[in-house]
Structures are given as C-alpha cells and as structure tokens.
Amino acid sequence: MPDLSTIFWMGLLVLIVGAIVAFYAWAIVNRARALHRAMIALRDRIDGSNDPR
Asked: Are 53 and 40 in contact (CB under 8 A)?
C-alpha cells in the first residue's frame, strides 16, 4: 500500500493530464466546428442557395 503523499501526487498528475487532454479535445472540436461552418458557407456561395442549416 503506497503512502498518502504518493497517492496525492498521482491524483494531482492524473488531474493535470486530464485537464490537458480535455483542453486539446475541446480545441479540436472547436476547430472542426469552425471548419464545418466555413465549408457550408463556401458550398452555399458556390450553389447560390441560402438554406439555413
């Protein structure tokens, strides 16, 4: 059984790594959403259609 300080530091490390991974996932989703909007706008400009989707 590891002592309490080891458990504490491991938990802190897991929290920090989890926060970094969550931030990167959020940034990737944001980038994909912006790219999707840009592609829809480009397609609408090419088609000449303005369907609000």
From this structure: yes
